[in-house]
Specification:
3 strands, Helix Hairpins, 10% strand, 3-stranded antiparallel β-sheet, elongated, mainly alpha, 131 residues
Length: 131
């Protein structure tokens, strides 16, 4: 294997990429990671759009969306040899953890009061409050 270094003065450092059969493995890895992130993002959006009855599935779809965005940030952070993407991922993970914990605690209280976790009674009560 031949090691090939590319240098871009606008990026913080130089990134090595290994040549194997005239293909750069680093770029292929980035392509695969971005493809997985796009598929995860579409699955999360599909879960949000198609599922309106169960709030737990909605929260799980939101988590899949946030994790796909994290994967995109990490991929570009590796590609550009920059730490800013990793810092954004840390903030997004903290945000998603707090969102999940607060959402699940609200669901636990709602389940204690109503013995059901369906979204339909919440919508009906909100419509009654507006009139």
């Amino acid at each position: 294997m031949v090691e090939h270094w590319t240098f871009n003065p606008q990026v913080l450092g130089s990134t090595p990429s290994v040549l194997k059969n005239n293909k750069m493995i680093g770029i292929e890895l980035n392509f695969y990671l971005l493809s997985i992130a796009i598929v995860l993002f579409h699955l999360g959006m599909l879960g949000l759009v198609l599922n309106r009855g169960n709030i737990l599935k909605t929260i799980m779809s939101l988590e899949i969306l946030l994790l796909s965005v994290n994967l995109i940030f990490i991929t570009f952070s590796l590609y550009l040899d920059d730490i800013v993407g990793n810092i954004f991922v840390l903030f997004i993970l903290v945000l998603s953890a707090t969102e999940s914990s607060i959402g699940l605690s609200i669901l636990a209280i709602f389940y204690e009061q109503r013995d059901d976790i369906a979204l339909d009674p919440i919508k009906i009560n909100n419509q009654n409050l507006k009139t």
